[in-house]
Amino acid sequence: MLIAMKKKALFLPFLIATGLLLGAGCSSPKTDPPVTPASGADLPNIPAPDGATGWLNWRGPHQNGTSDETGLPADLEVEGAKKNLLWTRDIAGRGHAVVANGRVYCWGYRGDGPDLQEVLQCLDEKDGKVLWEHAYNDYLSDTVYSRYAVGAPTVDAETGYIYLMTTNGGVKCFAPDGKMVWEYSLMERFGRLTFPNGRTGAAVIDGDLVIVRGVTSYWGKQGPARDRFYAFKKKTGEPVWASTPGVAPKDSSFSTPVLANVGTRRVFYAGTGDGNVVCVDVRTGQELWRFQTSQGGVNASVVIHDGVLVTIHGKENIDSTDEGRMTGIKLPTKLAAPGEAQVILKDKDLTKADGKEHQLWHHPFAMFTSSPTLVDGRVYQVTKTGVMVCVDAKSGKLYFEKKLNNDQIHASPLYVDGKIYVGFPNGKFMVLKPKDDDVEILDEIQLEGGILGSPTVWNGKLYIHTMKKLYCFGKAGGDTPDAVIPAAAAKPANSKAVALQIVPGDILLKPGQVLKLTVNKIDKDGNVVEANVKADFATYIPPTARVRTQMNASVADNTITAADSNVASAGAFQATADGLTGLLRGRILPKIPYEQNFESYKLTVDHPGDGVKFAYPPLAWTGARLKWEVRDLEGNKVFAKTLDRVLFQRAITIFGDPESSNYTIEADVMTDGNRRIKGNIGVINQRYFITLIGNQQILEVSSNHERVKESVPFRWSPKQWYRLKSRVDVAADGSGVIRAKAWPKGEAEPAGWTIEVKHKNAHKKGAPGIIGFSPQSLKRVFIDNISIKNN
Predict the structure, then answer these.
(1) How far are the Cα atoms of 33, 100, 403, 527, 704 from residue 30, in angstroms, in the given order?
(2) In 3-state terms, what secondary structure has residue 19?
(3) How is domain 497-588 classified at the CATH fold level?
(4) Which residues contact residue 602 at a Cβ distance below 8 angstroms, ignoring those fewer than 6 apart?
């Protein structure tokens, strides 16, 4: 029986004004310089970690959107005698807050246009007061419509450290006092791509690892764009492994990995951007199996019950043109041994399946990004049309369907204390009581701002983040359950080593830099059997490698030393000890000043379509393979945009240190084309695109098209070389000016700048690179004589 739904519009004055980074009510901690682990630098002075208790991760300790807490309100009141709204914080968000040790960690965004920033805030759970915060610009991304903060921070129970990945792939680790421990730009370091949807997700912590994900186009074997998972040492940020469990993606995915034990093996399950559900070894990154369920990305996280995995997607199915399906998959209990190939349980090319039936049941329910909740063997899911469905996880029996709203986007339901809490993109928030064949609506409230994130519960409080503010309902205190994510299985006694694991497993060095390596013996489950093993290292070139180059470095006594020569290189070393082997991948990127004219490249590869000789791009340049090649142009070797694949009509390539700053970059640039169609070509300077736009006949400075984007008219002709030059100057107050000029090659350089763009919160650092765009892969663009100098 349903009660009458209450419509409660919320028009309250702001309870607490949001402070700026150094404004009232907020303090920004004085921090030691953050560590970028790839540099091999020492850690800053961080206090000893104390550990943490609370709601530490998206989906909670059971990893399925349920809590063991009791006493949560069935009625949410924002005013009047029964008011249980404790406080609000004016910070827009599209994700999920987490709670640890009396602090709320809230990820949101504020500002408009070029001043918009993503913000991680640490709040006092009692009153919402800001204790510290960090704010970050977007850069070099495709994010549109302010689709920021679509995800959640994660807190480590052992250390209390807070982990966050920003929308453009900035992975950051903070101590509880707000000091940054380490950080990466996945975009500049590993070639992470961005997408207009902005979906980012949350990090997962297990043991001494923190795991993040993204579609990347890196180098070598990891050069092709794939949806990958990366594991780092949680305390130091050292890369441990990278995993590529799927095929070519059609979409990004923010499906959060779900941890589990299969015998003595620690694994995780997640959806991927290529339509698969995958199983990966947590300790080694080995790809164990995949089950394709969709033509597009699987964004919802999975739930697991009694040997059955339940997944849902909203894209086209692999066996019909219908969109959307909820599927129950029987989990394999036998996994691929170390070194064995990934098992394919199901694939759109059915000849690749293993011949067994792993699908137990399915329903034609569609949901793109909202994840299901599992309660007592029942799966509760809100579909894209706002219908809640309830299905038996093992049998697939449908218990009921109930219309709750016109649509649903990201928000996932939360079950606690016999009630289901769920929000909707129109700002509606509902409290439901599940029954055998229905859900009773206990309460409905209209909040300010759409709800795309899942609610959070801890210590008697319910947190709801909308695209306007963070709400805290409940009471001063409550019970705090001690449930935690189930631990990994203990290491078997007398386990035998089967391989070596090198940490860091992927390195980035500068010429002359020295880095100590840790070599461990690991067993078949990835457990360390013997630590700090002395190993011999030898250069390793994969037999299938098309670019057979070496890293310009040497290894002795488990220490790698980059050569002093200021050139880019990439390659691998194989470590050997007691008959066991392990692999180290790495790059060396030149210091500034640096020049590249491509004349040293030998054009020996036959082009399959054009009938010319070419050379592959520098292996150490991220995102270059299949997008650029070295060609001869009228007796001069140049870097040319490929036209083989429309998918790669745009290429963003990074070839410098992400920590670079205060430099000038220039290059010769040219587009093929005619009066009707021309390409775009430019350079990247400290996270700004400096681009000549052919069809629009402009010189443009941008970083994100909705954040920083200014241009001036500039007439330039196809088949003619131009010199393009840029520098970025950042003032002491954090503001900056991006300057650029262009002129026909061979003419005198103009005295003034063609364009000067002011940016209030300028990018303080960023790797140099290039950008090329050949519309529909019709007209090639070229670049040559790249020069980078310190200002």
Answers:
(1) 10, 22, 50, 38, 29
(2) coil
(3) Immunoglobulin-like (2.60.40)
(4) 615
Whole-prediction pTM: 0.93
**CATH fold of the domain at 594-790:** Jelly Rolls (2.60.120)
Q: Is the pLDDT of residue 460 over 60?
A: yes
Return d(Cα 235, Cα 48) in angstroms, integer. Answer: 11
Residues 282-310: pLDDT tens digits?
A: 999 999 999 999 999 999 999 999 999 99
Q: How far is 86 from 637, CA to CA, in rounded Å? A: 67
Domain with CATH 2.60.120.560 in the chain: 594-790
Start and end residues for every CATH 2.60.40.10 domain found in the chain: 497-588
pLDDT at 15: 31
Among residues 768, 756, 690, 752, the alpha carbon closest in space to that of 725 is found at 690
pLDDT in tens, 650-707: 999 999 999 999 999 999 999 999 989 999 999 999 999 999 999 999 999 999 999 9
Contact (CB, 8 A) for 431 and 394: no
The band of 547, judged by pLDDT with boundaries at 50, 70 and 90, is: confident
Question: What residues pair up with 690 in beta bridges, in sequence order?
Answer: 683, 701
Assign 274 to helix, strand or coil. Answer: coil
Amino acid of residue 138: D
- Give the HSE-up count for residue 128: Cα atoms under 13 Å, Cβ half-sphere: 24
pLDDT given for residue 544 in this prediction: 84
As a whole number of angstroms, the distance between CA 570 and CA 509 comes to: 10
Amino acid type, 385: T
Does position 19 have pLDDT exceeding 50, yes or no? no
Q: Which residues contact 639 (CB under 8 A, 6 or more apart)?
A: 598, 617, 628, 629, 630, 770, 782, 783, 784
CA atoms within a 13 Å half-sphere pointing along the CA-CB vector of 654 = 28
* Nearest-angstrom CA–CA distance, 166 and 498: 37
Decide: residue 475, CB within 10 A, 0-12 exposed, 13-18 middle, 19+ buried: middle
Q: Which residue has the tokens 């210590």?
A: 459
Q: If you ran DSSP here, which 8-state letter would residue 105 be given?
A: E
Question: What digits encode the pLDDT tens for the residues 94-106?
Answer: 999 999 999 999 9
Under DSSP, the state recorded for 365 is -
Sign of CA dihedral 573, 523, 39, 242: positive
3-state secondary structure of 309: strand
Please report how many Cα atoms fall inside a 13 Å half-sphere around the Cα of residue 599, on the Cβ side: 7
Q: What are the start-end ranges of the E strands in 436-486?
A: 439-446, 456-458, 461-465, 470-474
- Spatial contact of 611 and 639, defined as CB atoms under 8 Å apart: no
Contact 708, 700 (CB under 8 A): no
Backbone phi, then psi, for 391, in 5-degree steps? Answer: -130, 145
In total, the chain counts a number of residues equal to 791
Q: Is 503 exposed, middle or buried (0-12, 13-18, 19+ CB in 10 A)?
A: buried
The two structure tokens encoding residue 517: 């390596």
CA distance readout (Å), 68 to 308, 414, 480, 542: 22, 11, 8, 50
Q: What is the rounded distance in angstroms from the CA atom of residue 624 to the CA atom of residue 440?
A: 55
- Look up tokens 């964004």; give the residue: 299
> Half-sphere exposure of 381 toward its Cβ, with a 13 Å CA cutoff?
35
Contacts 24+ apart (CB under 8 A), 743-747: 744/720, 745/668, 745/720, 745/721, 746/721
Confidence grade of residue 23 (pLDDT, cut at 50, 70, 90): very low
List pLDDT tens digits, range 713-754: 999 999 999 999 999 999 999 999 999 999 999 999 999 999
Residue whose pair of structure tokens reads 């339901």 in the numeric block: 413
Q: Report the distance separating Cα 159 and Cα 179, nearest Å.
A: 13
3-class secondary structure, 189: helix
Separation between Cα atoms, residue 504 and residue 519, nearest integer Å: 9
Map residue 130 onto helix, strand or coil.
strand
Please list, residue by residue across 179-198, b when 16 or more beta carbons sit within 10 angstroms of its beta carbon and e when fewer do.
bbbbbbbbbbbbbbbbbebb
